[in-house]
Automatic annotation (TrEMBL):
GO MF, any single term: metal ion binding
Keywords per UniProt: Hydrolase, Metal-binding, Zinc
Family to which the UniProt record says this protein belongs: Belongs to the metallo-beta-lactamase superfamily.
Signal peptide positions on this chain: none
Protein name: MBL fold metallo-hydrolase
Cited SUPFAM superfamilies: Metallo-hydrolase/oxidoreductase (SSF56281)
Chain ranges of the Metallo-beta-lactamase domain: 47-257
Length: 280
């Protein structure tokens, strides 16, 4: 799909099975399971949705998914599939990892930033995209290095530290246009440095990666917030703001974990209109 100078390719960087209760927080199961049926272990399908973007000669990757570094035991525990989904998608587009110029993610949780790094044939952790600048919120990086006990399981040092050690991290604070048309907007809520990634061709022509602010289609309801969110009130405020703007300007939203038609538009009443022209 094209938005102005942006050529956008939707991708599924694999996925996993998340706990339904954690995914929908205080929302009663009798409500959420009508839309996202759970298996006998109360797990629901959770895709890792990202994009590859070409823009004025540059290649941008947003959201890298889980990657392939998890141990076999851990991968089985969380039901990971297609851990190499991002690299497969790049090959289909005729791109090599060393041709990627910019990498960003909505936040640094293992299911969003796991693909920042990979294991070499000798088993060492190496950068997946060795030439790319990786843009993250300073607040997110700081928290990832020293999270609270509840959040510790969400961050893996091997995803983040090799990129920092190689000098390939670029920090922003708040809202920043890191290259023409690529805007990062800190929302907080889910994590301190959670951000929206906006590909903005014009005020009324933009694609927004929602991450875990709106992870699944049921999360389009403002009060439906994941249990993992650290600042629920901030999540509510930022989600309401995003949905208002998206409806007013008809922004294309790409939901961070939605398995079925993850890209689409929302209207003032909150109705979802899938975008059928995006192929993954």
């Amino acid at each position: 799909m094209r938005l102005g100078d942006f050529e956008i390719h939707l991708l599924r960087a694999g996925g996993w099975r998340s706990d339904g209760g954690a995914t929908f927080g205080v929302v009663p199961k009798v409500l959420w399971e009508r839309q996202k049926p759970a298996d006998e272990q109360n797990l629901i399908r959770t895709d890792c949705i990202g994009v590859v973007v070409r823009h004025r000669g540059r290649v941008i990757v947003c959201e890298t998914g889980i990657g392939s570094k998890l141990s076999e035991k851990r991968a089985r525990q969380v039901g990971v599939w297609q851990p190499e989904g991002l690299l497969v998608a790049l090959r289909k587009l005729g791109l090599r990892p060393d041709e990627v110029d910019v990498v960003t993610s909505t936040h640094l949780h293992w299911d969003h930033a796991g693909g920042f790094t990979r294991r070499s044939p000798s088993g060492e952790v190496e950068l997946t995209f060795p030439r790319a600048k990786h843009f993250v919120q300073q607040a997110e990086f700081d928290f990832a290095l020293s999270p609270d006990p509840r959040s510790r399981a969400g961050y893996y040092d091997d995803d983040i530290l090799p990129v920092a050690d190689a000098g390939r991290l670029e920090f922003v604070s708040g809202e920043a246009e890191v290259m023409p048309g690529l805007v990062l907007r800190q929302t907080g809520g889910h994590t301190p440095g959670h951000q929206l990634v906006v590909f903005r061709a014009a005020q009324d022509l933009a694609c927004v990666m929602t991450g875990d602010l709106v992870g699944l289609r049921p999360h389009l309801r403002v009060p439906w917030i994941p249990a993992a969110d650290l600042d629920v009130l901030r999540s509510l405020e930022e989600k309401a703001r995003l949905l208002r703007e998206a409806a007013e300007h008809r922004w294309l939203l790409v939901l961070g974990h939605e398995p079925e038609q993850p890209a689409g538009y929302v209207d003032a009443a909150g109705s979802w209109s899938p975008e059928d022209t995006l192929e993954d």
